[in-house]
Structure formats: C-alpha cells, structure tokens
Amino acid sequence: AQKITQTQPGMFVQEKEAVTLDCTYDTSDQSYGLFWYKQPSSGEMIFLIYQGSYDEQNATEGRYSLNFQKARKSANLVISASQLGDSAMYFCAMREAGGTSYGKLTFGQGTILTVHP
Amino acid sequence: EAQVTQNPRYLITVTGKKLTVTCSQNMNHEYMSWYRQDPGLGLRQIYYSMNVEVTDKGDVPEGYKVSRKEKRNFPLILESPSPNQTSLYFCASSLVSGANVLTFGAGSRLTVL
Fold this sequence. Notes:
By secondary structure, chain A is an all-beta fold.
C-alpha cells in the first residue's frame, strides 16, 4: 500500500530565507506522481508542484522546487525566499498510475509552516 | 472559470438526519473523488469515480454513499450522520488519473451534533 510520511508537524522560517519541507513515500509501483499542495488558513487546497517518477530533472515552479531523490524515496519541497504569505499547511501527496490504487491521491499528515517577519 | 463547486460550505446537523453534500465540476473531468480532512491525519479518500456510473471505495467509506449519474456531478450522501463524521470534506476532480493535477473544491465543514 502506498504511504506518504511528513515528519515535521511544524516548521518556522525567517522571511526571505529558504526552507525545506520533508516528504518520504513508499510504493511498489514504478509509475507514480508526487504532488505538493498548500492549504492556507482559508482552507482551500492549492496545487504547487508536480514530479513524475520518470522525470530526470527536479521540478521547479517559481520559488518552489521539488528535491526528488528516487532511490531514497523522498520528495522534499524547497521554498526559496520565503514570504509572509507562505505561512500555511503544506501537504505532500502521491498518485500511482496503476494497480488497485489507480488514480488515488494519498496524502501525508501535513506540515504547518510559519514565516516570521 | 474552471472550478469544482461544493455545497453547502458549512453545515451543522444532528445525528441521524440524512444529508447530501453536492459537488459539481465544469471541466469535463472523468475522475472525481471525495476526501475528508481531520487534524493529524491529513486527507483521506472516501470514494472515487473513474467515470459515469463507475464508483469505488476509498480508505474510509463507512457511513457514506456516492453516485455518479452525470459526468459533472458527484454528490456525497450521509444516510445517518454520526458525530465521528464531523470533518472538513473536499471534492476533487481531474482528467484521467495519473499525472493530472487534482483540482479541489473549496471544502465543506460539517458538524454532526
């Protein structure tokens, strides 16, 4: 069964600094996708970044990058130049492309990021 | 605007009173899913649907029902709500699954007294 683990319940970062949010996953599938979502205090789920299991390059989207280490089964989110608006809950998620879990997006427990001015 | 719309956004009800949370998407997505979010547990899948008339259980389906009679709609039905179903519920949709990003509704906060 697929599983996502986020070991940091809460993280603090100073404004303009970079921060890394950890995510490890477990799957026996060869084809899968890894996602990060942001949930601000208003509650909506905002897609940030995607990495495919066969992608050789780490994904980047503006200030967000995904540090993908396939052998270690980790998919850490790096936020550069943190802003006050980055304060939110962040979820790592995985989607398998086949098997009985086809299409299901499995989430980690989330990490609450607080950006200090 | 491409979106997933859920209603109601907030609801307080009592144990045993049947309720339906509606979900509609205007993106012609085949895949739709319901999640519940509880503190410390992240989001857990309740039910999903690969297409019209095709639905299947997720990780926590007990106490819930769904239907997919039309492509755009995927209502979540609580036949006899109980307090342990107090949660934040999200409906989400995507094109055929895999790499496609799941688009979420705004969420429905349900309290069962």
